[in-house]
Design goal:
Length: about 425
């Protein structure tokens, strides 16, 4: 039976441990202040526990994200990390641990390796757990566990602060991205729309996050023709805005060539495909109105069908092709042609309209829009849009718009 350690020796040993604790705390604090990488902090932590405190088995598990069920094994001593990481569902196991203490479960692949567990709390929320096994010698075990707890708290809080800082940086980058995208997009969306004796255009444009994937545009020609379009790009932020900027440039360049709509849509599809290599696409509706012949030619490229309504006319403009940009050559492309009735109204929109929900969970289905358009077909484009917006506000009853919302309405004044 070993002789008890003399009191003076115990005091010297405790003093040595305290001095060691202070030195390591200072070293790690300096490393944290110098913004040392997390992996280097874990290495310092591991080396201290192994070489200077004589820990044989240890595992430090830290929070991976702000979600309560995402954890990772940060570092360990005396364990097969690969086996341990794949064998354990941390979210379930850690939820059982409420306070520091001895481990009394030995039938578990994590708990069976250790004797002590210490949760690390940050603002009353667990951010890490330290599991401690045996030591090379059993002297001053309580003091050693206390030192490990203190050091672990410092490391875990530092790592949590790094994670929160990274999230703040990512949020700031996202906000900067959205702000830049909004500025780019503001330059692309027409500020004014034409109103004359022959036609009127009016739009509702509400990007969900200040910058979205919706787009509309128009072009007037001296021979009296009007071309107008609406589209919905995949993606958000700067990437969508830059794709939209390129698309707008191609729209105006290609439409000025004064070819037919078949050639125009074929070429603009190829331009989108070249830019995105098929990884992005746009749903698109484009129409050309000829006031001399009173004909409307159009192509619907995977977009919600535009609504054409008159006194005794109702038609969905759905002829066309698939979405633009997903493939280099469109397999089928049909140009629709309609002889317009007098006082025709054409309503184009993006799917943010039909995705809108009421508080009861009902969606603003296409049939609701169709019935509304039939009742309101004699109004001007601006009056129609104002009434439709009132209808949407009444329908959603305070529910948020789930997506970008764009409506482009064209009133044709016939003979």
């Amino acid at each position: 039976m070993p002789k008890p350690m003399p009191r003076i020796n115990r005091l010297e040993r405790e003093l040595h441990l305290r001095q060691l604790q202070v030195r390591r705390l200072l070293q790690m604090t300096q490393a944290i202040n110098n913004n040392v990488a997390a992996d280097d902090l874990f290495q310092m932590y591991r080396a201290f526990l192994r070489s200077e405190l004589g820990v044989n088995e240890m595992a430090l598990i830290v929070r991976e994200s702000e979600h309560d069920d995402e954890w990772q094994l940060a570092t360990s001593i005396g364990l097969d990390e690969a086996e341990l990481a794949t064998a354990i569902d941390y979210s379930t196991d850690l939820a059982e641990i409420k306070r520091p203490g001895l481990i009394d479960r030995y039938d578990h692949p994590l708990f069976s390796h250790f004797e002590h567990v210490v949760p690390v709390l940050h603002k009353e929320r667990p951010i890490a757990y330290i599991f401690i096994g045996s030591f090379e010698d059993e002297d001053n075990m309580f003091e050693r566990v206390q030192i490990i707890t203190t050091i672990s708290n410092v490391i875990a809080v530092a790592i949590e602060n790094k994670r929160l800082f990274r999230r703040q940086i990512e949020q700031e980058r996202l906000e900067a991205d959205l702000d830049l995208g909004a500025k780019v997009q503001a330059m692309l969306i027409p500020k004014e729309l034409p109103v004359n004796d022959f036609y009127e255009l009016s739009a509702i444009y509400r990007p969900k996050l200040g910058v979205g994937g919706d787009y509309f545009d128009y072009r007037e020609f001296v021979d009296g023709k009007l071309v107008f379009c609406i589209g919905d790009f995949t993606g958000k932020g700067v990437s969508a805005a830059l794709l939209m900027a390129n698309f707008q440039a191609n729209f105006h360049t290609l439409i000025r060539k004064r070819g037919n709509l078949h050639e125009f849509v074929t070429e603009i599809n190829e331009s989108v495909y070249r830019i995105t290599d098929g990884e992005r696409f746009v749903t698109f509706f484009v129409a050309e109105y000829d006031r001399e012949s009173h004909l409307l030619r159009y192509v619907n490229a995977g977009h919600p069908p535009a609504v054409l309504v008159g006194e005794n006319t109702f038609q969905l403009l759905d002829k066309g092709t698939t979405v633009l940009g997903s493939i280099d050559r469109l397999p089928v492309l049909e140009v629709g042609e309609v002889s317009l009735p007098p006082q025709a109204l054409i309503v184009t929109y993006t799917d943010g309209l039909t995705d809108l929900q009421s508080t009861a969970g009902e969606t603003f289905e296409e049939e609701i829009l169709h019935q509304f358009a039939r009742r309101q077909h004699s109004r001007s484009a601006s009056s129609f849009n104002a009434n439709l917006l009132d209808k949407l506000e009444e329908f959603r009853q305070g529910e948020a718009y789930p997506d970008d919302l764009t409506i482009l309405t064209c009133r044709i004044f016939g003979d």
